[in-house]
## 1
Amino acid sequence: MPKKEIVTTSNAPSAIGPYSAGVKVGNFVFTAGQLGIDPESGEFVPGGIEAETHQALKNLKAVLEAAGASLSTVVKTTVFLRDMDDFGAMNAVYAEFFTADHPARSAVQAARLPKDAAVEIEAVAVMSDESISLS
């Protein structure tokens, strides 16, 4: 059975509860949802949905890189939005981070997100492109 490894990094906000920023099992990395919080200040970045999405994805990238993965090895994301009317603005920023070979994605409106965030994004990634095998 593959070993479960906890992923931590000072380049993303610390967990605000009894969970890990990421967990690596075998060739897979599972991240916790990332918010638009600046890891240095511990506060949401100003600027609305675009700024929060940008920071959430920077935080997601930091967790993935701490695990040995990257945005290019993400196979699935889930985006939670406070307001589905923000989808277009979130999607425009998301497209700046995922430019090719896009991962599968779900996007849902949540009744309420942690700390009243506008957006939360989680991902599943593989360790490298070479570790993807259909055989």
## 2
Amino acid sequence: MKTFSYILILLLLISCNSNQKPMKKIIFLHHSTGQGVWYGETNRYVRKLTGKSDVKTFFNRYNRKNKTNFEITELSFPKKVPYGWQNYPYDYYNIWVKNAGDQPYMEEPTLEILTKEYDVIIFKHCYPVSKILEDTGTADINSKEKRLENYKLQYEALKKKMHEFPNNKFIVWTPAVHVKSKITKEEAERTQQFYKWIKNEWNENGDNIYLWDFYKYETEGDLYLKEEYASNPNNSHPNKEFNAKMAKVFGKFVIDVAGNEVENVVAEVQE
């Protein structure tokens, strides 16, 4: 009888583990800040001729070394035309929640479309997301205004939407931030509040959404993108050296998520 029980337990364990197969196809949705990390130090002429990037190089080396077949691609989202170069909480909410469905919205793929083609979907905001205005006391989920009260409603709606696709995983970058010369202290403090809210309240352990803590790497505990990581003191795009370092850190995090290395992922979020 004991032998039968042991066999039954073993079969159950095998069955559970079979559902934890690695997720092979990955897409990274981004604008300029994300593009910087994607390419890292790759020369612009090389990338135009070959499509090479630091993140893809990291994936290729990992696949060769570990005999895996993770595939990652990137996409500017949303495009400048026709939607417009806006990738803030309102825009993801607008495309993926308010206008959800099997048809593109203004030529942009909805989650219903993306989740059929990709196992892991990664998205982020560029640093203007940190230009956060003071709350009015009247939150509006359909407002484009950059206010914490609106961001929170839009993020809650996005989380609920992503939970509709339990067979997919989502990676969300914590917000990018400006250098000190390009943002007020009050705006920077509100961005930090948004960041802490995402990590400590919005984020849920055990669901299909994972945070990559870009804000932590950019600020190292301060309110602003550190000047030594910026293109220059008046430009909030990170420089090539920082991007090259982040490309490897980001690549490893994505593979940990896609490959179900849950302990590594949890450790990254809680650092």
